[in-house]
């Protein structure tokens, strides 16, 4: 698997030791979440939209209504994914920080149609809720026509990861220092009052698992 390509936008200029250049690091960040922020220019002004995403080895996919102005960009967009793993509490406030994993992906989006569009919607659904594509009713023609799905290439991407304790072990100030970890996990499902079927295994089994 090739390393991430470096560009003027993806070059690690600050905190270079936190940068990652292997492509698997990008996939690890993508696998760990399902919400990204899509940065676009709309009518000459910046707009950043939180949205669910899916991905494969070549692209990240985002979707929304055909009426959404954020999903009709004609130039490069920036997709960001960030996971917070803990607060880094140092001996001095200046050295406080965050343990995190993040990725930034740049590209000109391409609107998908036909089989490509359906495949991307499946990838997006299965990434957020594995098993749901085959379990629930799939989109009909009218719903597909009302939905825009964009593909953004993973060719130009930057990844950074910060792990470990504070960096000020040589500070003489005698206070506690360390990391306050942050963990995320799925909770037990809450059934729709009008639902008549039991919770399916692929939903019930996610309770207690991390994301």
| The CATH homologous superfamily of one domain | Electron Transport, Fmn-binding Protein, Chain A
Could you describe the largest sheet, including whether it forms a barrel?
A: 10 strands, antiparallel
Mean pLDDT: 92
Contiguous uncertain segments of 5+ residues: none
Portion of residues in helices? Answer: 10-25%
Helical stretch tally? 5
Shape: globular
Q: Name the helix and strand elements from N-terminus to C-terminus, one letter apiece.
A: EHEEEEEEHHHEEEH
Question: Care to describe what's here?
Answer:
The protein has a domain at 16-84 and 100-163: Roll (Pnp Oxidase, Chain A). It contains five helices and ten strands, in the order βαββββββαααβββα. With 211 residues, the protein is an alpha+beta fold. Strands 1, 2, 3, 4, 5, 6, 7, 8, 9 and 10 form a ten-stranded antiparallel beta sheet that branches. It has helices spanning 23-32, 114-128, 132-135, 141-145, 201-204; strands spanning 19-20, 35-42, 45-55, 59-65, 77-89, 97-107, 110-111, 147-153, 156-162, 178-181.
Entry keywords:
211 residues, 5 helices, 34% strand
Write a brief caption for the model.
By secondary structure, the chain is α+β, with helices and mostly antiparallel strands. The chain contains five helices and ten strands.
List the helices and strands and how they pair.
Layout: E1 19-20, H1 23-32, E2 35-42, E3 45-55, E4 59-65, E5 77-89, E6 97-107, E7 110-111, H2 114-128, H3 132-135, H4 141-145, E8 147-153, E9 156-162, E10 178-181, H5 201-204
Antiparallel strand pairs: 1-9, 2-3, 2-5, 3-4, 4-8, 5-6, 5-10, 6-9, 7-8
């Amino acid at each position: 698997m090739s390393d991430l390509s470096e560009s003027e936008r993806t070059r690690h200029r600050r905190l270079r030791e936190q940068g990652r250049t292997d492509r698997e690091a990008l996939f690890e960040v993508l696998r760990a979440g399902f919400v990204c922020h899509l940065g676009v220019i709309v009518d000459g002004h910046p707009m950043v939209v939180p949205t669910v995403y899916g991905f494969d080895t070549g692209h990240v996919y985002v979707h929304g209504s055909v009426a959404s102005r954020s999903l009709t960009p004609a130039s490069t967009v920036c997709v960001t994914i960030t996971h917070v793993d803990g607060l880094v509490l140092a001996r001095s406030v200046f050295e406080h920080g965050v343990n995190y994993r993040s990725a930034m992906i740049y590209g000109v989006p391409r609107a998908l149609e036909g089989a490509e569009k359906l495949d991307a919607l499946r990838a997006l659904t299965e990434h957020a809720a594995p098993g749901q594509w085959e379990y629930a009713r799939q989109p009909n023609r009218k719903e597909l026509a009302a939905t825009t799905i964009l593909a953004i290439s993973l060719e130009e991407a930057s990844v950074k990861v910060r792990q470990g304790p504070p960096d000020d072990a040589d500070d003489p100030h005698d206070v506690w220092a360390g990391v306050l970890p942050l963990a995320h996990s799925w909770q037990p499902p809450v059934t729709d009052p009008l639902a008549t079927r039991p919770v399916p295994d692929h939903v019930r089994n996610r309770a207690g698992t991390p994301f």
